[in-house]
Design goal:
Length: 121
Amino acid sequence: MAYNNFTLESVKSQFGLKLIDNHFCEFLPVAEPQLEFLTIFDESFMLGKAARTEKAKSELLVSPILVQARRLASQKVQLFSGEEFDVDRERGLNGFCDFLFSKSENPFTIDAPVLMLVEAK
């Protein structure tokens, strides 16, 4: 099973997870987007709205936001797009991710900890 075949219920069941509906980012300071980001995103947004494929939409709409998040994190994380990320095939933890954030030291390796986005829309 690939990542995008999981449902919330199957993940909870298979991995023994518990859903906690809590605000977990309240302690983070508000981050104002940079003017450069707003300019780029305005154009990307117009192109993304008219895009015909989900991949194009994610690249035009989601990617600029993630690049801005990386910038706000003082570039202490790496951003990967369209990577195959096979963690444990037997448990269904395999396939391609739309985007990954990694605490890697360099932009060529994906190292833990990792934040993975699948089906980014």
